[in-house]
Design goal:
mainly alpha
Length: 73
């Protein structure tokens, strides 16, 4: 004669929850690390991306004049 046993979900949850929590912790750690890298890289953008606006505008005007002289505009 077969006896049916009823099990609760607490046993499965007790096994799976630590695994799930560890995976979440690893993903959060990776995300925080990536965020810190991006923040560090963009913290230096001011010293890298300094442009000279007047010279840029003059070069663009000169390029526009050249395009008009060639007749491509």
């Amino acid at each position: 004669m077969k006896k049916s046993l009823r099990a609760s979900y607490t046993v499965e949850a007790a096994i799976l929850m630590p695994i799930v929590l560890c995976i979440i912790a690893v993903l959060l750690q990776m995300g925080i690390h990536m965020y810190q890298q991006v923040r560090k890289e963009f913290g230096n953008k001011d010293c890298i991306c300094q442009t000279k606006a007047v010279e840029t505008v003059q070069r663009l005007r000169l390029a526009g004049d050249v395009w008009e002289e060639i007749g491509w505009k």
